Amino acid sequence: VIAPSSRLLVVEDEEDLLEVLTERLEWEGYAVEPVSTLAAARTALAATLPRLVLLDLMLPDGSGLDFLAEMRASPSHTNTPVLILSGMGEENASRHGMARGASGWLTKPVGGEVLIATIEKLLSQKTVTSDQ
Amino acid sequence: MTKHRKTAAKSASEGDVAGESQQRHNRVLVRLATGSSITGGDFDAFLRCLTEAAAETLEVERASVWLFSPDRTRLRCVDLFERAAWNHSQGIELGARDYPAYFRALETERVIDAQDACGDPRTAEFRAGYLEPLRIVSLLDAPVRWGGRLAGVVCHEQVGKERPWTSEDQAFAGSLGDLVSIALEDQQRRRTEEALREAVRTNRDYVRELSNANEELRRANEQLKEMDRLKSTFLAAVSHELRTPLATIQGAVENLLTGMTGRITEMQLRMLEIISRNAGRLNRLIENLLEFSRLSSGRFSIAASHIDLRQPVRQAFENFRTLADRGGLKLSGAIPEDAIMTMADHDRIIQIATNLLDNAIRFARTAAALSLSARDGSATLTVEDDGPGIDAELLPRLFQQFPRADIRSAGTHLGLGLSIVKAIAEAHGGSVTVASPTSATGGTRFSVVFPIKASTERPAS
Q1: Of B244, B245, B260, which has the smallest distance from its Cβ to A23's Cβ?
Q2: pLDDT, position B412
Q3: Nearest CA of chain A to the CA of B376: how many Å?
Q4: What burial letters (b/e) apply to B130-155, b meaning 16+ CB within 10 Å?
């Protein structure tokens, strides 16, 4: 059994952006686990159940979409909200990500307020879903 | 040939000359008419057969075939057979006008049977120049008619002793003339067929060349398309690549502006706002480049859903309000209280409003205004500014995809952004218009009209 965590797992290979995102989210009051590879993300997932995963798509050791598919195939992470943050536009979102289980999609660059609002929305939906 | 002569001699001795010679003549004619050379395509070979057979059969020294030159002024010997020497020759020519009586006779008679060629009024014209030098005494000439007129003549020339021509001889000579006509006809038919075949060949070559040219064009076109596709792909890839560093810059500036790093001074704030504002503009440029690559590659499409039009317009407006405030511009917005529900692409509506506001704020002197309204089944988004206005001559080209050099003074971004506004508006079934100047001092007003469309989505369960 994987222990539930209060943390957000942030997967982003651009170290600068990872730092900016982490600083902002922590400042907003979230606990953040920043990782820059899929390997590190898998390790983190094996240990804990994050509240939400913020996921970049193009990563040095693979595609975020494959990682998403793995999560959805694992009983532990089927319902974990996954918010994709990608340089790829919205037309790809419906074609790939959403169909394969992404909870939301933001295209870079995204304003901090929009990011926080989207995360809040997904977390509240998750709560509702769990209650049901 | 020797055998023929013996047979003739034998027949004569039995006293049945006419019947026997006619049969012999007929056999020769049948042989000539059914031989392969008459329709075998070798006209000259046929003529050689014919003159030999004629000389042998009628036992004359010379037999020849003459044909008119194309302009009919000359008669040319196409084959002359001399029996004693067993020799064929060609090429002698006679001027047609020099022998009027002879040609008149050829036109009207089946054969010219001149036993006394030098005395016969039809052939006497040849006496000095032809008959006497060659010691020709009797002539039996049959016209060759072809194509409805005289085409030539078959001549039998008796050398040495004068000779009377029997009716069988005359019939035989006339038939030889007919055979030459047939051979001429066949030759003509072959020439026509060959010309046709050549025409078909030429045509086929032409078709092949055309088809080759077509194939080359198609290939060139494919290459162009491929290059265009590569260009679009490249544009899209570059734009995507630009997004991440841009997101990082914007995120870092935002982090500073939140105050999470501590208090920032007024000066620091202004500098951060400049960074933020320009990162925002860079982002809009990237969006337009992406949209442009979609437009130019034909991958442009909208994803319409049933939305409240006010929402994306308000979102775009809010993005610019702080920007305008900081630049000292007055930006006003008039958005109605009632929802405007229609089928539209949320992000593309933001893009339209963003592009129009971006222009308005850059060109405005003191104020810019946005308004959204709905009436009579259509919604209108208007964005105007009090800038210098747009030159009348530029107006018709304002929405062209590629900005012209002369619009560059107003910023290349203008052309690109407006062409995208137009494409999005039209994809929604709407249109965009521009009015400028709107006052004595200038001013520009862009209006985008969208038809309000009822939901085509199934009601949410």
Answers
A1: B260
A2: 41
A3: 32
A4: bbeeeebbbbbbbbbbbeeebbbbbb
Q: How far is CA A122 from the centre of its chain?
A: 11
Has residue B338 got a pLDDT over 80? yes
The interface predicted TM-score (ipTM) is 0.75
Query: What's chain A's Rg over C-alpha atoms?
Result: 13
Which residues are registered as beta bridge partners of A86?
A107
DSSP letter string over B116-152?
Answer: STTTSTTTGGGIIIIIHHHTEEEEEEEEEEETTEEEE
Give the model's pLDDT for residue A125.
82
Residues of chain A with pLDDT under 70: 1-3, 89-100, 126-132
Would you say the pTM of this structure is higher than 0.80? no
Which CA distances in Å does B42 have to A45, B45, B186? Answer: 97, 5, 10
User: Would you tell me how many other CB atoms lie within 10 Å of the CB of residue B449?
Assistant: 16
- Indicate the SS3 state at residue B398: coil
Structure tokens at A8: 């957000």
> What are B310's two structure tokens?
């006010």
pLDDT in tens, A59-94: 888 888 889 999 999 888 988 999 998 877 555 555
Strand boundaries in B275-409, DSSP class E: 305-308, 330-334, 341-344, 367-375, 378-385
Q: Decide if A27 and B260 are in contact by the 8 Å CB cutoff.
A: yes
Residue type, B341: M
- How close, in Å, is residue A80 to chain B by CA atoms? 24
